[in-house]
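Hey, can you fold this one?
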Amino acid sequence: MARLIGIDYGTKRTGIAVSDPLQIIASGLDTIATSEVIDFLEKYIAEEEVECIVVGEPLHEDGSPAQIAHLVVGFVRTLQKKFPDIEIATIDERYTSVEAKEIILKSGAKKKKRQEKGLVDKISAVLILQQFMESRTK
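Sure. Predicted structure:
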């Protein structure tokens, strides 16, 4: 089986998560500058078989698109053009950042570690990917 990639897209940083080849466990892979995401994915996909890229869809609590939603739509289109043989999916990412912060806090991480915004992005990507994988098994 091929891996799945989860993406928490941001204007400055993007969190990336990946599944194991059996698509059971999602793990944080990296947080990188958003301007470098496509290059990063090209290199990763050249080395690993990827079945699907899942991008978090930023929505407000009421379900309306968040301020950066149009950027995510453009990013998804870029992915579809760049990787035509890979499924590109989106999934509601409401509350993933809040959940990620709670996970970091509960992990007992030191204050300096908790303030790393990149860590929140990477854990958010894991939550996005985990949610997608769980939705496929229902």
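The chain is about 45% helix and 25% strand. Let me know if you want another pass with a different chain boundary.
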